[in-house]
Amino acid sequence: MKTTLTLLAFVLALLGLAPGIPGASASGPELTAADVGFTGTGGLVLHGTVLAPRGAGPARPGVVLVTGSGAGVPRDHLRTEAVAFARRGLAVLIYDKRSAGYTRFRRSYSDLAGDVLGAVRALRARPGVDPAKVGVWGLSEGGWVAPLAASRDRGVAFVVVVGGNAMTPLRQQVWNEESALRRAGVRGSLLDRGKVGFARFGADAGLFAEAGFDAPGVLAKVRQPLLGIWGTRDLQSPPHENPPLFAAALRRGGNTHYTFRYFAGADHAAHETPDGGTTRGAALAPGYADLVAAWVRDVTSGRLPNGDLPAPPPEDHPARATPPSAWWESARAQAAAVALFLTAFAGYPLAALVRRIRRRTVAPVSRWARLVPVAGTAAVAGGFVYLVSLAAGSSPDPGPLLAGRPLVWLALQGLAVAAVAAALAVAVAWVRAGTGVPRGERVRLGLLLAATAVFVPWGAYWGLLVP
């Protein structure tokens, strides 16, 4: 009977049907694995796995791993890191990230930080874990969330961030998207104005969740020792700007217990990369896991670092400032301008159609007036669609280039210039016609030219009327 039960347990473990049995999902015979459940923000029950070295011994340090962006990211996304840290003597909790309340346009770092603290409590309660030596590790978005959790619980023993940011998510995202376009060879106003303007518009319109998250303000409240790690080929977070920003924010709060390290050739997650950061390899950067384990053992034993900030790697290009929008560039002002364009540009041909139906045709002041609404509408609508397409994917495709300018963008710029030039021709013709222009036609032309007058600064702001 005992043999039968043992065989049954072995088969269930192979099939993955015994998650509660320590070791059922461990990676290697030297580790144990046990599934746990815990309560996050709002009473949401989350599930995870604790990996730890097999065998008895002194209570060991523990670490909760906090993943990057995305809803419902499964725990196995960080299994490589978890196994590497556990093999070096740490108890590691990985868990399935929440999907409730988390979308592309809506998320709360506060809620995520509450989930992290729930995981910390669960790991503290595990046998063999020293509850006074449990800390947090955060990757990418987790680099905002993990320090926030630590700032709320002084009992968190330490903080590790990988590919973290001490700047707003909006500024980081602009740098990320701009980097991708630069690698594709793009230069000019699409980068300098179009992408930045579209990101700020999205933030103003509430389409960019946590865009203005105050990362420096949170870091100034972190009192625990902090280890920051960046790959020199990080293409998502600027590895040359963030470490000094981290140091400045921590020091402002009186915290000098930090260590920053760079791994040559490693990507955003400190993994090896075969192509300079675009593709993530399966293996961690050599020495990365050893550094984390040794640093955690040191700080949890009372050996605290003192402001260790080596020189950052060379800078490819700086992150652009993304200050709050002025009233004239806010989402409301942009929406009002577009509404004016659509009304004026669509109203001109519609009025002509109504006249034709009523057989009350009026000779146009200038045939160039027909080009203004067509070119203007195409430039406005096409520009918006193109910018949306570039922001929709992780690897934006700008299309064929000419002298660093995407052909699509050049075509949109050509339409914008054509609309303005045609409007100038209409204005000259109107002046020459003088009082001979019928009253109804004057109203129609006046609205068309007024919209074009607004279109000029609008087009310059978005980069459609500058090189």
UniProtKB/TrEMBL annotation:
Query: One Pfam match, by short name?
Result: Peptidase_S9
Q: Where is the signal peptide?
A: 1-26
One of the GO biological process terms: proteolysis
Where does the sequence pass through the membrane? 335-356, 368-388, 408-431, 443-464
Q: Note the superkingdom of the native organism.
A: Bacteria
Per UniProt, the keywords (alphabetical) are: Hydrolase, Membrane, Signal, Transmembrane, Transmembrane helix
- GO terms for molecular function, please? carboxylic ester hydrolase activity; serine-type endopeptidase activity
All copies of domain Peptidase S9 prolyl oligopeptidase catalytic, residue ranges = 79-271
Q: Which Gene3D superfamilies match?
A: alpha/beta hydrolase
Give the InterPro entries listed for this entry: AB_hydrolase_Est10, AB_hydrolase_fold, Pept_S9_AS, Peptidase_S9_cat
Region annotated Disordered, chain positions = 304-325
Name recorded for this polypeptide: Alpha/beta hydrolase family protein
Species name for this entry?
Answer: Actinomadura rubteroloni
